[in-house]
Amino acid sequence: MFKNLSTSTKLIILCGMFILSISVTTASLVAEHRIAIDFARRELIGDNYLEVLRNTYAAILSDRPIDSITASAAASPNNVLAALAAEQAENQGLLQTKEFADALMASLRELWARRAQNNATDTLVLDALNKTHKLATRVADDSNLTLDPDLDTYYLQNIVANKLPTLLGQLGEAHVLFHERPQPAEAANEQNLRFVLDGLLRATTDGIDEDLTSAYRGNQDGRLKRAVAASFGVMSQHARAYLSALNATRVDNEARGLIVGVDRASLDSLYGRAVASALWAWGGAQIELDRLLRQRIDSLLAKLRRSLLLTGALAALSIVVAVMTHRRIVGPLERLEGIAQTVRETKNYTLRAESDSQDEIGHLAIVFNDMLAELAATRDREMTEQAELARADRLMTIGAMTASIAHEINQPLAAIVTNSNAGLRWLSNASPDLEEARSALKRIAKDGHRASEVIGSIRAMFRKETQHKSLHDVNDIVQEALTLVQGELKKQKVSVRTELGNELPPVLADRVQVQQVVLNLMNNAIDAMAPVTDRARVMRVRSGIHHDNSIALSVEDSGVGIDPKDVGRIFDAFYTTKSNGTGLGLSICRTIIEAHGGRLSATPATPHGSVFEVVLPSSPPGEG
Question: What is the model's pTM?
Answer without folding.
Answer: 0.54
